[in-house]
Amino acid sequence: MAATTLTGDKATCARSLALMATGTVEEMAEVYRADATNREAKDEPEATRGTGPEATHATALWLREAYSDLHWEVHDAVQEGELVVLHTTMSGRQTGPFTVYDEDAAVKVVFPPRGRSFAVTQTHWFRMREGLIAEHWANRDDQGQGEQLGWTPPSPVYLVQMLLARRRARATEAAAPHR
Known about the structure:
InterPro entries: Cyclase_SnoaL-like (IPR009959), NTF2-like_dom_sf (IPR032710). This is Ester cyclase. It holds the Pfam family SnoaL. This protein is an alpha+beta fold. The chain has one domain: Nuclear Transport Factor 2, Chain: A (Roll). The chain is 34% helix and 36% strand. It contains 5 helices and 7 strands. A 5-stranded mixed sheet has the order 1-7-6-3-2. It has a two-stranded antiparallel sheet with strand order 4-5. α1 crosses α3. The longest helix is centred in the C-terminal third of the chain and has 20 residues.
């Protein structure tokens, strides 16, 4: 299903995924409410944990840091009242470190890049208000993505690379001005 065949709220939601790969804050403001919440931000950097287009754009930048050639193919779109659901495949190539954060937004795990490509099924859920996205959450195949990228199961060498990458990320975090 091409996103161009979608209309209304479904098209807005599909556009929001396309903007994750290339969009600006200004473009995010065209699809997200100022008080929009991303329930998935709990494992993301601190800047993503706020609300609105700025936080959503921070999520996009976080993903772009790790993955090039990001793309979401929309297979199905369903709407029931204010709820829109998109069944998608996310694809890309890991060209940078992927960092996971803990509940305090501190670096938890870093997966160094291996240059591998991936394609995984995801379902994105959006709550709409007045034609804009008010809330987002997702179901993702993180296990499949980890296997395709060589994170799971990790080799002993990759485990050491992960530990060194986490040490570098924490040192960078400690040297940054405090929040």
